[in-house]
Amino acid sequence: MRVRKQLGDDGWDCGPLSVASEMRRLGVTPPSAATLARIFVRRGMVIPSPNKRPRSSWRRFVFLAPNACWQIDATDWQLLDGRTVAIFQVLDDHSRRLLASLAATGETSEGAVSVITLAIKRFGVPVLVLSDNGAALNPSRRGQTGQLVTLLQSLGCKPITAKPYHPQTCGKNERVHSTLKRWLEVRPRAADLPELQTQLDTFDLHYNTQRPHQALDGL
Which is more confident, 141 or 111? Predict the structure, then answer.
């Protein structure tokens, strides 16, 4: 129970698989995930959802190698004074590695270009970059050419978009947004963009090197 509470207090996933992974990291042999789930229910820590769709029914799609496809997206966040800013995140579709995160004044073309440029500097040019159809990311379906699209094409990378009104295509990035926001919620609100960027850098390091990924069999 202490492990589960600590994970939750720190803003990380605290389901049975996450608790089991953390117990192993601490040198403790955990019971099965099913046993942990029953304990959580018995202690009133989890409300059973018998009608929830089982994981075995999910159909996942993943590119076969790193740098085959990246996903980029932005999400809103509020600073201490109530100002709404944007957080850009770039994720590798295959490895689930967070390649770059950026605190920006808003979801702007300049922010999108900056975060992609940073990711490319670190990891090279990908084959594809997937995004939604936002004006700052890829407005091609609107008959426009954005700054990010122009940059990627000049580097030999192909920008692609999800179908309109189909956010599931970018689900991996939506999932990491959710994980990030839960982590930020339990920490002091950043007063400005530099402070928020420091928080993002700390999150990225933990997310990439310490947090076990269920989609990667705990890697």
Answer: 111
Strands (E), the chain: 69-78, 84-92, 98-104, 128-131, 158-161
Which pLDDT does position 57 carry in this prediction? 47
Using CA atoms, how far apart are residues 123 and 100, in angstroms rounded to an integer? 10
Angle at 213 between CA 44 and CA 190, to 5 degrees: 80
For CA atoms 23, 58, 101, 152, the dihedral sign is positive
Each residue's pLDDT tens digit, 168-201: 556 687 889 999 999 999 999 999 999 999 999 9
Q: Where are the alpha helices (DSSP H) in 67-129?
A: 109-123
**pTM of the predicted model as reported, rounded to 2 decimal places:** 0.74
Q: Pick from 107, 183, 186, 181: which is nearest to 147 by CA? A: 107
Rounded-to-10 torsion of CA 138, 125, 95, 186: -60
Transcribe the chain into DSSP letters: -HHHHHHHHTTS--SHHHHHHHHHHTT-----HHHHHHHHHHTTSS---TTSPPGGG------SSTTSEEEEEEEEEE-TTS-EEEEEEEEETTT--EEEEEEESSS-HHHHHHHHHHHHHHH---SEEEE-S-TTT--GGGT---HHHHHHHHTT-EEEEPPTT-GGGGHHHHHHHHHHHHHHHTSPPPSSHHHHHHHHHHHHHHHHHTSPPGGGTT-
Q: Which residue has the tokens 């075995």?
A: 56
